[in-house]
Amino acid sequence: MSFPIASIALVNSVLFGVYSNVLLVLTATPYQERWTHPAMYTDIFLAGCMGGFVQSYCLGPFDLIKVRLQNQTEPRLKPGSPQPRYRGPLHCMASILQKEGVQGLLRGSGTLMLRDTPTLGIYFVTYEWFCRYSTPKGQEPSSTTVLVAGGFAGIASWVTATPLDVIKCRMQMDGLKERLYRGVVHCMASSLRQEGPGVFFRGLTINSARAFPVNAVTFLSYEYLLRWWG
Ligand SMILES: C[N+](C)(C)CCCC[C@H](N)C(=O)O
What we know:
The protein is an all-alpha fold. It has seven helices and no strands. N-trimethyllysine binds next to helix 4, helix 5 and helix 7.
């Protein structure tokens, strides 16, 4: 449990930190004037893409370890049964480093970057659009608006990210036994050939159901923290 929590804290602070600072540079509008002088959607999109690009490199190794541990489906240790491949996050990291090298720890990071750069642009644009649409001009959005806008931003982002999310997970699991895929394009083509277009939407419902509450709370915390420290 402490492993995903630590990674969420680090990754979100990188994402929101890069986003806010890039937006500040692009618009030259301080946070306090954000709702009276709204930024252009193209600037919001660019700042979100930049945030997504940088965060994907921090997220890469954490995400790989999470995917490997989640896919470890052997039953839990019974007396006398063999040890599982990975005994926990640190053991997983050490054994990837040992068997697959530093390169191995970055497996899937390129696909993660392709997944997160545009979809985090969409994430922040959806959030801002919903806040502006539901709030009278020049006013700050209410907490309820922030919650709902954050929830929809999460869903919009996950809907667009799911095709590359499926490919990313496959790339991250590749290399455990024999290598199946030569790269992202080969992985996409062979998944499509063997399983049809539906393969790109696998996990979409569960991703969206998780995205609403998670991102509602994420944006509410972000807005509150900015108000306290702003
Ligand atoms: C870009 N992508 C869709 C992958 C994530 C967007 C939302 C980020 C949030 N930390 C979450 O986990 O839901």
